[in-house]
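RECORD TYPE: inverse folding
INPUT: structure tokens
STRUCTURE:
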């Protein structure tokens, strides 16, 4: 790691990926290997990721801490000249309580750097072996959540987003699944395929496939309340159901800068 540009090492906020210790970026792995202190949420980030750290690293599980108790500990260690990593599940930019942390680090005069990570929706698509943007079927991916204790802006209400019938990835919504299902069914057909993905990338990962009409019932039958991602998309109908439409990018009659049209 290069020397800091200010008087302190920057806090590195690293996306750990959804759970599998191998689904961390090379940069994230390197930053972890050089860290003196790692703050991680043990309920969301597997301890296996700490295998990338030095044996003498100070690892602090923050699952029981508030930001008001976490931040002073981070600042104290940065000012002591230690290299600090905040290890977050998935990608920090998605539902990672990142904004509030960055504001307070800036207020404390602490530099920071963000290292992106693999998000759960990306691993879900890989596990299901699908493309979420199939030509002439669906070309938009929506990442959202149901409104709960943290309210969703009215303009982003789930029923409104459902009108697009896009590939919709629903985070943090298992406890509100009945209302989420009702909102989605205002526009999606009841037989729209749904994947219910639990603890993706962890050893106890499970995925249930069903229809939108079954989404709430399947969730309750499995006893799911947290760490669930819902993927709702016509692309989940499989290779046959998605049709034979193809992207223009690799079409033989499509010319571009690197494959100019041949004159006969």
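DESIGNED SEQUENCE:
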């Amino acid at each position: 790691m290069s020397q800091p540009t200010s008087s302190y090492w920057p806090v590195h906020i690293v996306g750990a990926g959804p759970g599998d210790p191998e689904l961390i970026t090379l940069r994230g792995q390197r930053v972890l290997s050089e860290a003196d202190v790692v703050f991680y949420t043990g309920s969301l980030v597997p301890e296996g990721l700490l295998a990338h750290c030095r044996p003498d690293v100070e690892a602090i599980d923050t699952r029981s801490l508030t930001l008001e108790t976490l931040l002073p500990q981070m600042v104290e260690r940065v000012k002591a000249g230690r290299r600090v990593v905040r290890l977050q599940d998935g990608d920090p930019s998605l539902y990672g309580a990142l904004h509030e942390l960055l504001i307070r680090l800036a207020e404390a005069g602490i530099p920071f750097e963000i290292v992106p990570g693999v998000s759960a929706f990306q691993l879900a698509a890989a596990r299901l072996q699908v493309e979420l943007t199939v030509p002439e079927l669906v070309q938009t991916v929506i990442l959202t959540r149901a409104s709960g204790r943290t309210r969703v802006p009215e303009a982003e209400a789930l029923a409104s987003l459902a009108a697009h019938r896009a590939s919709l990835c629903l985070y943090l919504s298992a406890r509100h699944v009945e209302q989420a299902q009702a909102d989605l069914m205002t526009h999606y057909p009841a037989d729209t395929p749904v994947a219910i993905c639990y603890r993706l990338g962890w050893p106890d990962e499970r995925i249930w496939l069903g229809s939108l009409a079954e989404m709430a019932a399947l969730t309750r039958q499995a006893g799911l309340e947290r760490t669930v991602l819902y993927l709702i998309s016509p692309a989940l109908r499989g290779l046959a159901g998605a049709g034979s439409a193809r992207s223009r990018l690799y079409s033989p009659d499509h010319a571009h800068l690197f494959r100019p049209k041949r004159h006969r």
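NOTES: Helices lie at 26-34, 67-79, 98-107, 120-128, 158-162, 177-184, 215-221, 238-241.
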